[in-house]
Design a protein that fits this description.
246 residues; alpha+beta; single chain; 5 helices; 4-stranded antiparallel sheet; 5-stranded antiparallel sheet
């Protein structure tokens, strides 16, 4: 690795850390310990992202034969990469902290909310339909504020021919909309993306709490996608958008 390239990467990493420090100094979590953990993990993630941005910017300048501007290009690449990846770094960081300290994970629940007979009547279900699992709705308790939590309630119906319990695969996804209008999928912290559990037939409600960054801007747009599947059949999907309020 050349000295110019080393300088470019060093400058880029410094820029990435500076960008993060502006937001990280304001970042608050439910507890000081969680806050400290998130900052540490976010710094590591952003530093790695800044390094990748540096290499990208440096390579772009070399391809365009502007070697003298290589260091400048690396810094710009790091800055853009750091800002674009801020939400991803935050949710990756807090998920890592939750895994290290399970007691910090916000309370969640999965509960049976309607009986088999009630849902059978509502759906006009017949036993010859076999096992049926259907995502019904996703709702978010509001308002959702920065440094708070989005309480997400997802419901689904499970029907079986004999009214027996059955395994259901649950999948949760969280999307963050960037300034360019494009969605980026991030982890739902504290929960496996996909899990399989056995339920009684009827209606079931899944409730999870998603942390919102302290510096999330009012109007920041998120989307939650919830899907359920059984017996390797195509998944049934429901989703809902929400915004960070003032």
């Amino acid at each position: 690795m050349t000295k110019n390239m080393q300088k470019a990467i060093a400058a880029a990493v410094s820029t990435g850390l500076l960008i993060l420090s502006i937001g990280a100094n304001a970042q608050e979590s439910a507890t000081d310990d969680l806050n400290s953990c998130v900052r540490k993990e976010q710094l590591v993630a952003t530093a790695k992202g800044a390094g990748i941005g540096a290499l990208t910017g440096f390579a772009a300048m070399l391809v365009s034969n502007k070697k003298n501007d290589a260091a400048k290009g690396a810094v710009i690449g790091a800055a853009v990469g750091g800002m674009a990846g801020f939400a991803t770094a935050y949710y990756t960081a807090i998920n890592t902290c939750y895994k290290k300290n399970p007691s910090w994970v916000p309370e969640s629940s999965i509960q049976h909310t309607k009986s088999f007979e009630k849902v059978k009547k509502d759906l006009k279900y017949k036993s010859n339909q076999g096992v049926v699992v259907r995502a019904n709705s996703v709702t978010i308790d509001g308002p959702v504020k920065a440094d708070g939590q989005a309480v997400v309630n997802s419901t689904f119906a499970l029907m079986t021919p004999d009214g027996a319990e059955h395994a259901v695969a649950i999948d949760r996804k969280l999307y963050v909309t960037g300034d360019d209008g494009k969605e980026t999928v991030v982890v739902v912290p504290g929960h496996d993306t996909t899990e399989e559990r056995t339920f009684e037939p009827g209606e079931v409600m899944d409730t999870v709490r998603i942390p919102i960054p302290h510096d999330a801007k009012p109007g920041s747009l998120y989307r939650v996608e919830f899907s359920v599947a059984a017996d390797n059949k195509p998944a049934s999907v429901a989703s809902e958008k929400f915004q960070v309020s003032q």
